[in-house]
Design a protein that fits this description.
single chain; alpha/beta; Metallo-beta-lactamase, Chain A; Rossmann fold; 2 domains; seven-stranded mixed sheet; globular
């Protein structure tokens, strides 16, 4: 299709009706730009989309602009590279480092899963194959090009962009994209207005077109003291001489929990209990956080000392030994939604013991083990057999890297004029519809819409 000279097309190739698989394609007559390239996760019907070819040939995409390093925003990159993409992948420097860690881990898990499926013959396919390999990841990371916040990047005579801090995770960014004389603003994932480690999201005053996430568009985070909630769960578990197992996202959430544990320890309030970060990816991510002091809204002294008393567990042998030891401890291990990683081994050994606790500290996607347990499932399946869930199940719902409905509305209030169009993506149906109603009620904006997967719009 040929567009008029000042027209461009935007197509939602992911994160439409779901919180995963973020991909938004912008097409001009002269250029194709992809905003984010995320994996679909959670429900099987969503994961199967990772194997379905995109509406666009990867070789025809000229540039990719990445908001941040989470797998649902960067995890599809190696698929594009494997299938012919050769352009630049633009991101911030911390995003490059964190995405490299996350993509290497993703490829390793896929290769191991495919090998296991072939060895035990439980794949529905004749031969199970990974979506991509570690070799594909190595080719991908060579294409990263990094930029600072507020640095204008000229792509051609008609397109330029800048990254602005979004307050979500280290290196996360809004994308302020100028196409012809129009402003397209992509929120990526927007952080809370008062984040724990990061600086607050950058406020903007104008956008012609706004693509806005709505992960928590239907709810408010509870206004509680996270540190006190965490201490309560630690003390209750310790009183029973149990193990506190925290399924933890390796990026941001692990560092936040460790920060609160550090604060409790320096205040002399933490029980004498060992704390383990049993996650190679979490350890590597923590090293990146330790490197970028200037991007975190806590003191350099705190950053230098908050990991001093944490036991970093890297080797599988050490992990197995600690996992089999039934003594009281606090363990942070991936994955955050219990879809893989070392946390499964801890639950496999300890989820049926009443003295132990599982503490959820992050979003649990639809169709994941984490959501099933959090919603009260009495049993969970690991390694081919079911286990009774007898341990305490707790959650800290206010601990999120995403802004809630109030945060989103308050952030939008900084925009002086109603955009021509506001698209709500990166949310499940009930979340996006609730946010749409709230925006229309609070701001009076009738421009708001919720796109469907693969839906396109001609803009000018």
């Amino acid at each position: 299709m040929t567009l008029n000279q000042t027209e461009f097309k935007i197509t939602f190739l992911g994160a439409a009706g779901t919180v995963t698989g973020s991909k938004t394609l912008i097409e001009l007559n002269s250029k194709k730009i992809l905003i984010d390239s995320g994996l679909f996760q959670g429900l099987k019907e969503h994961r199967k989309l990772n194997r379905v070819p995109l509406e666009v040939n990867p070789a025809d995409i000229d540039e990719i602009i990445l908001t941040h390093a989470h797998l649902d925003h960067c995890g599809y990159l190696p698929v594009l590279v494997k299938n012919g993409f050769k352009g630049d992948i633009h991101c911030t420097a911390p995003t490059e480092e964190l995405a490299t860690i996350i993509l290497k881990d993703s490829a390793k898990i896929q290769e191991e899963d495919a090998k296991r499926a072939n060895e035990h013959n439980y794949s529905k396919h004749e031969v199970a194959t990974p979506l991509y390999t570690q070799g594909d990841v190595l080719k991908t990371i060579k294409l990263f090009v990094t930029h600072d916040y507020s640095e204008w990047v000229i792509l051609d005579n008609n397109v330029k962009f800048e990254f602005l801090n979004s307050g979500h995770i280290l290196g996360s960014a809004f994308i302020n994209l100028k196409v012809f004389d129009k402003t397209l603003f992509f929120s990526g994932d927007i952080g809370q207005l008062d984040p724990i480690l990061m600086y607050p999201p950058k406020k903007i005053k104008h956008a012609d077109y706004l693509i806005m996430e709505g992960t928590y568009g239907d709810r408010l985070h509870t206004e509680t003291d996270v540190k006190e909630e965490l201490l309560e769960v630690i003390e209750e578990t310790y009183a029973k001489r149990g193990i506190l197992m925290i399924p933890t996202f390796a990026v941001e959430r692990a560092q936040e929990i460790l920060y609160f544990i550090y604060k409790l320890r320096t205040e002399g309030r933490l029980p004498s209990i060992p704390v383990y970060l049993d996650s190679p990816m979490g350890i590597h991510a923590t090293e990146v956080y330790d490197k970028y002091h200037e991007l975190q809204n806590i003191s350099k002294d705190e950053i230098n000392h908050m990991y001093d008393d944490i036991h970093f567990v890297d080797s599988p042998e050490d992990s197995k030994r600690i996992c089999l030891d039934g003594k009281p401890k606090i363990v942070l291990a991936g994955s955050g939604m219990i879809e893989g990683g070392r946390i499964i081994h801890y639950l496999n050994n300890h989820v049926s013991d009443k003295k132990n606790t599982v503490l959820f500290v992050g979003y649990q996607g639809e169709g994941t083990r984490g959501r099933s347990i959090l919603k009260g499932s009495g049993e969970v399946k690991f390694f081919g057999r079911y286990h009774d869930v007898n341990c305490d199940i707790r959650s800290i719902s206010s601990l999120s890297a995403h802004g809630d409905q109030k945060d989103i509305i308050n952030w939008l209030k900084n925009i002086k004029e109603e955009p021509t169009k506001l698209f709500i993506n990166h949310s499940e149906k009930h979340q996006s519809e609730a946010l749409l109603v709230k925006i229309r009620h609070e701001l009076g904006w009738e421009c708001t819409t919720v796109p469907s997967l693969n839906q396109s719009y001609i803009l000018s």
